[in-house]
Amino acid sequence: MEERREEAPAAAQLEKSYLKYTFFKVSREWRSLGAEAREESKREFLQVLESSATALSFFSLVGLRGDTDFMILAESPSLDSFQTLVSDVLSTKLGRYLEMPYSYLAMTRSSKYLGSHRHAGQEGSMRQPSSSRFIFVYPFVKKREWYRLPFTERQRIMAEHFKIGHKYPSIKINTGYSFGLDDQEFVLAFEGDDPSEFLELVEELRSSEASMYTELETPIFTCRRVDPATMLSLLG
Fold this sequence. Notes:
Helix content: 25-40%
Number of domains: 2
Shape: elongated
Number of helices: 8
CATH class of the largest domain: Alpha Beta
CATH architecture of the largest domain: 2-Layer Sandwich
CATH topology of the largest domain: Alpha-Beta Plaits
């Protein structure tokens, strides 16, 4: 009971919403179509995206990974909207040539390890529209030993983790919680304009005590933020 009382102050700091990271890969058959057919399919696809009532962000991975071409990040208070969006997308001409090699579901929630400390833009605060050039996304799982540690010990370890993160103020973290919703425990999405700064942050985090309890943190996706028209144009 004592540990549960320690965790309680961090609860319900923001309105919960669902996050859906859906990665798409275009088949070779689509690229074999004539230019006019490809352009027509892109126009139809764009109309579906622009008419969606769900909050969407768009990212291209063309040339950055070989197994996925673009990613759509959707945020909604309802899971139904994700099903509607994907159903509408797959029913288009372009959708018939799409595969979904990766898909991650998560939910927003305040971090229990922040305690009483608060500052603008910190992990666990309400999501705000972003203009960062890149986001770096990956599923994350901790070793079971982590959850057997007393909460105060976990909070001490995470304080070091946050301290390292504060050394890179241009990199912002958005943590999605997936316990029971998807295979991973978290979906981490770091935002920034300079990939080299994120590289340095991740390299330094490897030496932190918290990293000893990491079970999984791959695959990692470097995603360039684009408008939906550019996302489709980059497909070829």
